[in-house]
Hints:
There is one protein chain. By secondary structure, this protein is of the alpha+beta class. The protein has helices at about 1-20, 50-75, 80-85, 100-115, 150-160, 165-170, 190-210, 215-230, 250, 320-330, 335-340, 345-360, 385, 405-410, 435-445, 460-465, 525-535, 550-565, 570-580, 605-615, 615-635, and strands at about 30-35, 45, 95-100, 145-150, 255-265, 275-280, 285-290, 295-300, 305, 310, 315, 370, 390-395, 420-425, 475, 500-505, 595, 600. The strands form 4 sheets. Strands 2, 3, 4, 5, 6, 7, 8, 12, 13, 14, 15 and 16 form a 12-stranded mixed sheet that branches. Helix 4 (about 100-115) links the parallel strand 3 and strand 4. It is globular, with a radius of gyration of 24 Å. One 2-acetamido-2-deoxy-beta-D-glucopyranose binds near residues 131 and 546. Pfam families: PLA2_B (PF01735). This is Lysophospholipase.
Amino acid sequence: MFGRNLVTWSLLVCYIASLVQSWSPTDSYAPGSVDCPSDKDLVRIADSISDEEKSWLEGRDSITRDKLSQFLNHANMTDIDVDAYAKGNRSIHIGLAFSGGGYRAMLNGAGQLSALDSRTRNNDFNEQNSSISGLGGLLDATTYIAGLSGGSWLVGSIVMNNFTSVQQIVDQNKIWDLTRSIFNYGKFNIKKSYKYYKGISDDIEAKRKAGFELTLTDTWGRALSHQFFTTLDDYGASMTFSSLQDWPIFTEHNMPFPIILSDARAPNTKIISLNSSLNEFNAFEMGSWDPSIYQFTQIKYLGTQVRDGETNGSCIGGFDNAGFIMGSSSTLFNAIIFQVNTTTIPKALKTIITSILQDVSKHEDDVAMYKPNPFYDTTAGFSTNIAQNDSYTLVDGGEDGENIPLYPLFQPARDVDVVFAFDNSADTPQNWPNGSSLVESYNRQFGVEGNNTIFPYVPDTNTFVNKNLTAKPTFFGCNAKNLTSLARNNKTDVYDVPLLVYIANRPFSYFTNTSTEKMKYDNKERNSIITNGFEVASRYNLTLDPEWPACVGCAIIRRTQERNGEEQSEQCKQCFERYCWDGSLDTSDADDKMFYTDQGTTSEQEGLKKTNSGNKATLNWSLWFGLLAMSLVFFR
Length: 636
Ligand SMILES: *[C@@H]1O[C@H](CO)[C@@H](O)[C@H](O)[C@H]1NC(C)=O
Ligand SMILES: *[C@@H]1O[C@H](CO)[C@@H](O)[C@H](O)[C@H]1NC(C)=O
Ligand SMILES: *[C@@H]1O[C@H](CO)[C@@H](O)[C@H](O)[C@H]1NC(C)=O
Ligand SMILES: *[C@@H]1O[C@H](CO)[C@@H](O)[C@H](O)[C@H]1NC(C)=O
Ligand SMILES: *[C@@H]1O[C@H](CO)[C@@H](O)[C@H](O)[C@H]1NC(C)=O
Ligand SMILES: *[C@@H]1O[C@H](CO)[C@@H](O)[C@H](O)[C@H]1NC(C)=O
Ligand SMILES: *[C@@H]1O[C@H](CO)[C@@H](O)[C@H](O)[C@H]1NC(C)=O
Ligand SMILES: *[C@@H]1O[C@H](CO)[C@@H](O)[C@H](O)[C@H]1NC(C)=O
Ligand SMILES: *[C@@H]1O[C@H](CO)[C@@H](O)[C@H](O)[C@H]1NC(C)=O
Ligand SMILES: *[C@@H]1O[C@H](CO)[C@@H](O)[C@H](O)[C@H]1NC(C)=O
Ligand SMILES: *[C@@H]1O[C@H](CO)[C@@H](O)[C@H](O)[C@H]1NC(C)=O
Ligand SMILES: CC(=O)N[C@H]1CO[C@H](CO)[C@@H](O)[C@@H]1O
């Protein structure tokens, strides 16, 4: 008995020790020296996925094949030999993409994610006496999960908390305490506030002392970490994103492959979707598929001085702090400057805040600084602006108008069959999505960065609203053959283009259109948004369409069927009639004050009431941001 306990304990100790070892070498926010890998070249060309990802995928495939079989079996699909697809020659890859939009996006995304998670109550088809109300089990069958900005807070906090579940977060209440905003973390308790600001100040000061340039994103990432990594003694100051590579939950393939998206922006440039360089962080690498960069570097060694990818024999670790990476995906600061003027805070305070923020912007401190530049003096990408700069600068992943992280999942090298795009953007004046992110992603394929990726046809934003494409889930690219006209140079096989399942934020049981800048949520509101998110992704708990899981199944197996030249079942044909965009347009000016669910119309009045209450929070944001900034100056 004792012996067995001893073994258990020593295993546990080893396990914890192994976790600690893989975190920052300084055991703090400061990067520090580590041994270089045997191969001195840290950079590779982006013509395929990495060997590490390839071999990890094999392990994940062996799990998702069984889980997909289970999911499809329970989806009650008729006339389908489920295992021919789930366990066929080619493993089916499912991708999830969560949009940006601050805490609104994080919380709505959390609800949508929970609808796919069998760990959510009443959502596990294996449980005898519960009647399943969502798409439980789909997450188990998923290969990739991507997040951008607010969506990266969701993905990052789930993944970096040992792939916890939304249900657990809500039940245990250990992380995501949004009752205190990161700008007023101490809740007016002077001692607590001091400790908080001092802690952040010490963390970033350690990085500066280690010789690394700081930007506001360091402060931002450390502040956010106080909400996401609350259970850790140091609030994640020493937790690197790459440490995931050693966690059993990841090495045993018991979670999807995480991807976080930012935009790379050369100094003094503006970006739009047509010319943006998208930068992805994944469990193994950081870099870009786009021709402007077209390279990846090993994320573990960020901060290392390289020339054309080669180290001089001394390497740095600990730069890839998890919170810093989530901060790099969400550098929302630019927007704040313009909000200060619209609030009613005292004039004196306004002046101070405005001057601090303008100062920051002048120095381009609204970026996340990756210096030294991991792609310095490389030639694979066409952007000399990026390759010849000693720093690599990243901004909010949504800054180019593409607010859903879709391109990483549309890379032919990733071989994804279906992508679920959860859009919690604030496109309309009332903070609802109108498909504009998809329009930008569609347009991007024709620009210099398109690189022969194919993105399915989508309509204009008026059609999105007028045709109810935001009111309920809509499938795009239902027929791969329809995409042939988009295949320039025949370089990309149309069957390699995922089918896109678009699911937009809608109000079912709660008005979830809160302002992007709202930084404080009480638990009731937080949980109401999460519940509404579940309802959005589950067709109102399957009440609006009991066949929804089967229709999702039809989308999942579609590309395999097309490859094999198979007819759809009668059920799948009907599903596609219900959910596929039929190619028709209605470009007349959309009434963006109305928003539909297929439960009916919600009145303008009701919507406005809610939106206004959401906007009040903007004031808090500016106020506390100013105080935070001032405190940091003060403590230094
Ligand atoms: C499938 O059908 C069975 C039996 O009718 C039912 O109990 C189950 O809830 C259905 N599953 C879904 C996901 O609709
Ligand atoms: C699987 O591959 C084998 C050999 O390559 C082939 O004979 C078989 O038809 C394939 N099965 C399916 C379902 O594609
Ligand atoms: C299922 O039923 C059993 C016995 O009635 C009960 O003990 C258990 O709590 C139920 N589980 C759920 C999830 O309701
Ligand atoms: C991580 O999650 C797995 C699976 O849920 C669990 O077995 C393991 O104990 C967890 N590890 C830690 C350190 O909490
Ligand atoms: C991207 O395009 C926009 C609009 O055409 C232009 O203003 C901007 O300078 C371009 N940026 C780069 C880096 O080419
Ligand atoms: C390698 O480069 C780093 C950073 O510039 C420098 O500190 C270090 O001394 C160099 N090491 C060698 C062996 O040249
Ligand atoms: C704020 O308002 C003042 C006075 O109206 C103006 O000079 C300033 O440029 C505005 N600041 C911003 C960031 O718009
Ligand atoms: C693409 O392939 C089709 C059929 O193989 C051919 O007819 C067409 O000319 C090709 N297009 C280009 C741009 O090469
Ligand atoms: C839908 O299911 C979720 C998760 O079980 C639950 O929290 C929510 O109350 C349900 N909504 C309705 C309208 O029943
Ligand atoms: C697909 O192609 C067919 C035939 O060219 C066309 O009628 C239809 O509108 C297209 N559908 C979409 C969604 O583009
Ligand atoms: C959109 O949905 C609303 C509410 O269900 C309905 O009144 C309207 O006719 C629908 N519009 C279209 C084009 O289907
Ligand atoms: C499929 C495709 O066209 N890939 C191109 C992407 O960009 C790189 C760099 O410009 C090219 O080498 C690839 O051929």
